[in-house]
Amino acid sequence: MNKKTFYIISGFILFAALSRLLPHAYNFTPLGAIVLFGAAYFKNKKWALIVPIIALWVSDLLLNNIMYSSYYEGFAWFTGGFLYIYGSIALIAVLGYYLMKKVSLARVVGGAVGASVIFFVVSNFGVWITSPLYPLSIEGLIACYTAAIPFFHNTLGGNLVYSGVLFGAYEWMKVQYPSLQPVESQV
Known about the structure:
By secondary structure, the protein is mainly α. The chain is built from 6 helices and no strands. Helix 2 (31-41) packs across helix 4 and helix 5 (105-130) packs antiparallel against helix 6 (138-176). It is globular and about 55 Å long. The protein starts with a helix and ends in an 11-residue tail after the last helix. 32% of the residues are buried. The mean pLDDT is 89.
């Protein structure tokens, strides 16, 4: 569709990604919501993946090099567990491609729950594979997932809250400004 709509949707995504710089509970972030939002409103699927990844990477750069700079030597281009975190983003995008073809409350809630589960499974698998804390055995994998359970509710809460804000605000804007329609053409 038009560039204005593309930039508004991209702006929503970037704004949500930058909200990670605000104080928040551990794992209470918009990661899954951002990807689902992109999948719902960018009809060109390449933008539905590219824009959220760039927005999240920019927020990672700011977090790693400003807020968490003491954990890195030099400039940190990528966060620890980058492959697993961004791998989960790609899987959430696939979920969003299929689930968010039509936006509804049930689909947004289902997507937020699904995104939370995907992130939990993939990112903690990455912790198990890369961390010396857990033996590379079934017992170690179970211990890793068990240790991560207390953080799951924040992931779920963040995805639900941010999905509500992103989807709710955009749907409200579409009612106020009918020219805002899903982006179908390449920009």
